[in-house]
Amino acid sequence: MRFILVYSVLLSVYLNYHEFHVSIMDMEHNAQTKSVEVSQRIFIDDLETALKAYYDLEKVDTYKPDNQYYLDSLIDNYLKSKVIVIIDNEEKSFNYIGSELEGDARWCYYEIEEVAIVKEIKITNVALMDVFEDQQNIVHFKNNKKMKSYKLDIDTKSTLFKF
Q1: Domain-located, residue 12
Q2: Could you tell me the CA-to-CA distances from 11 to 4, 5, 16, 28, 124 in Å, in that order?
Q3: Are 141 and 147 in contact (CB under 8 A)?
Q4: pTM above threshold 0.90
């Protein structure tokens, strides 16, 4: 019985641990609303590690926070310091909308307003790279039914898409 319990605990730890650090950023230009809609999927344990390091906090609960507004304010400021978007040679600020839990990850949503067209976009995303050397941030950008993607990492922190 003791062996089964130890085996179950070890197997559970192994299955819940992911050996790579990756986030997915989906961006889409919405011509009707003249905005760029952004969603970024980040593993909750990675996000927690990054927020604790960035704010020098002992505890942050990214799974079931006591105060969702507080968590979102932490994520908002963190992402604004780690993600830079330049559209047609103009740096754009984004409005953080919020986040939601999905399985072992948190989707973070934000929007860049007043973007009528996108001829080129430069995306810098160094989120989580301050805590994980192997962090990869995959960026997908959709514009006029064309999708472009790129993998950012510690050596390549930004990419330029031209349309």
Answers
A1: no
A2: 10, 10, 9, 39, 37
A3: yes
A4: no
Considering the domain boundaries, does residue 123 fall inside one? yes
Q: How far apart are CA 20 and CA 67, in angstroms?
A: 29
Which residue range is the domain that position 41 belongs to?
A: 20-162
Summarize the confidence of residues 3-29 as an average pLDDT.
Answer: 63
Distances (CA, A) of 5 to 2, 13, 18, 47: 5, 12, 22, 30
Strand intervals (E) in the chain = 22-30, 35-43, 83-87, 90-92, 95-102, 105-113, 120-125, 136-143, 146-152, 158-162
Q: Which of 63, 72, 58, 39 is CA-nearest to residue 140? A: 39
1, part of any domain: no
Q: Is the pLDDT of residue 25 over 70?
A: yes
Helices (H) and strands (E) in the chain, counts: 3, 10
pLDDT in tens, 34-51: 999 999 999 999 999 999
Q: How far apart are CA 120 and CA 108, in angstroms?
A: 24
CA gap 148, 27 in Å, rounded: 10
